[in-house]
Write a structure and sequence with these properties.
The protein contains 19 helices and 14 strands. The chain is α/β, with parallel strands linked by helices.
């Protein structure tokens, strides 16, 4: 590698070269004892590992999210997005792909789903989304993801450093200047993670302890839901049981205290409500004065009016409501029912209450992706809190094709258009899924709605962040299914070569050089730094990676 000294005067304003000068000064103080240390190599290694702890990452990414939230408040077209990632490598390749194809990672995050952790990362084996996985699984995955994202930084910078050495060797001053600019303006792959703490995995102290671990691993945003911790269900499953606001807010406070204790003042709390789909509650909270939170919560309960105390059974619970003595309907399992049709009102109350008590963003779990439905609830919240913002789950649990084709069918029906060529959803529930309809006017319009769902919902329904909880769960399954079908079938090796490797090469994906992606080149350069000409290198012509250029 070419030394730096002769180049310093030419590009003195480069931050990279300033860092080299700093290292040179530091080494000079040590005299002969540090003569084996090259200041430029040390500067490179420092730049390749600019985040030295999870807390540094959490503070850095929290600031990014806060700035993005402010941008969205000014312009709802500036929404943010993420994909759920179940492994560090998946997150790494996602970040690399975004940067390569779009040129920037701005407003692109990573979502860490409790669903994916349960299904793919639990020591118990594959589990449903019911908070049965180990508490420490999520912090562990956060740390793993950031390890891979930092390595993506190191790999990309290594390529730039190598190009810089080549430009110096060829005395190409303009290219050298360009590469120094790339180093100085390098955009890190380290992006915000929104991490799912489910329902807190216990009481508020347990929530606090787990939140600390997640923040220390690098999470700047934590999502928590208002279900009963020990019987938590996926938002798209039945059997959901909510807790009174006081119980939920104690956990919101616990997370905030964790952020503050660790010095992450910009930390973000996402408060999720499952009230739209939850018809049960675990307890009847105690109301201390008319109109308080407990009173409002209890007003949604299904009750029976008691006209005569003789109607009461032993151990029945009663309270006064609206001037009447009522008994809340209690099931055999001890849970209490909410009245039918109260879901939207409960969602609105949940959202307003959460924002008034420390939450930064909302999450409303719905049963279908419908902009108008989401907007109905969010706009009611905005009447009270104008800058309310939503995180929304673009869930694979929705049948997007079917639900949007149904939506268009109803629109056309309301306009009196002829629908005789389409199956009637009321008599043929899955008929609109037929591939025969893919080129129809209805299907094309539905696909347009799907294509622009995110921008439409961000503009009309206050959605700041769009995520997909488990896309890479499904994408992995699809990829393996396709490869296995061909490889173990008639295509043999061609299934891999044509379906995977040839595509990687032609898309110019770095991962085709898997050894380099895993750190071979970085390791070789480190060996040269440490051992000089005595280094035993893994690269070179004999390494088969050279076959890929």
């Amino acid at each position: 590698m070419v030394g730096f000294k002769s180049q310093v005067s030419v590009f003195i304003m480069s931050e990279y070269l300033k860092e080299i000068n700093n290292m040179e000064a530091l080494c000079s103080k040590q005299g002969e004892t540090w003569k084996g240390i090259n200041p430029e190599y040390a500067a490179r290694m420092k730049l390749q590992n600019r985040f030295r702890s999870g807390l540094e990452i959490a503070r850095h990414t929290a600031a990014i999210m806060r700035a993005d939230m402010a941008d969205y408040d000014k312009d709802p077209s500036k929404y943010t997005q993420s994909l759920g990632c179940w492994h560090g490598f998946v997150a790494q390749q996602k970040a690399i792909a975004i940067k390569r194809h779009l040129g920037t990672l701005k407003k692109k995050y990573i979502y860490l789903s409790g669903w994916m952790v349960a299904a793919l990362r639990s020591n118990f084996g594959p589990l449903p989304d019911q908070s049965m996985h180990e508490k420490t699984s999520v912090p562990s995955l956060i740390g793993e993801i950031y390890t891979f994202l930092k390595q993506a930084d190191a790999v990309e910078l290594e390529r730039i450093f190598s190009s810089l050495d080549e430009s110096r060797a060829n005395s190409n001053k303009s290219e050298e200047k360009n590469l120094l600019s790339q180093i100085d303006n390098f955009e890190s792959h380290v992006v915000p993670i929104i991490a799912d703490i489910d329902a807190g995995f216990g009481n508020e102290e347990a929530t606090y302890l787990l939140a600390k671990q997640m923040i220390e691993a690098g999470a700047c945003a934590i999502q928590i839901e208002n279900q009963v911790s020990e019987v938590k269900q996926c938002g798209h499953q039945a059997g959901k049981v909510t807790v009174p606001h006081e119980v939920f807010l104690a956990k919101v406070n616990a997370i905030r205290y964790a952020f503050l204790e660790l010095g992450v003042e910009d930390g973000i709390i996402v408060a999720r409500t499952d009230s739209l789909g939850a018809g049960l509650t675990q307890m009847v909270p105690v109301s201390k004065e008319p109109g308080d939170l407990a009173s409002q919560y209890n007003s949604f309960l299904e009750t029976e009016e008691i006209n005569n105390v003789a109607e009461l059974k032993e151990h029945d619970i009663t309270f006064h409501q609206g001037g009447k003595l009522v008994k809340p309907v209690r099931l055999d399992n001890g849970l209490y029912s909410f009245r039918e049709g109260t879901g939207i009102d409960r969602v609105v109350l949940d959202c307003i209450t959460s924002l008034r008590h420390g939450a930064d963003l909302l999450w409303i779990e719905t049963e279908r992706p419908n902009v108008a439905q989401i907007a109905e609830m969010v706009n009611r919240v905005k009447e009270v809190i104008p800058d309310a913002k939503l995180v929304y789950n673009n869930s694979p649990s929705f049948n997007w094709t079917l639900k949007f084709r149904e939506q268009v069918y109803e629109e056309l029906k309301s306009k009196g258009e002829d629908l005789s060529s389409y199956p009637d959803p009321s008599s043929d529930p899955l008929g609109l899924m037929s591939s025969d309809l893919d080129d129809s006017e209805l299907a094309i319009k539905a696909d347009k709605y799907i294509q622009y769902f995110q921008s439409d919902a961000s503009r009309e329904a206050g959605i700041f962040h769009h995520l997909i909880t488990l896309p890479t769960y499904h994408e992995t399954a699809l990829g393996v299914d396709t490869l296995a079908e061909g490889y173990f079938g008639n295509d043999g090796m061609l299934a891999y070569v044509k379906g995977v490797q040839r595509t990687e090469i032609r898309r110019k994906m770095n991962v085709v050089k898997h050894q380099e992606m895993a750190g071979t080149t970085i390791g070789d350069h480190h060996k040269e730094y440490f051992a000089g000409e005595n280094a035993l290198l893994a690269g070179g012509n004999e390494n088969t990676m050279s076959q890929f250029g």
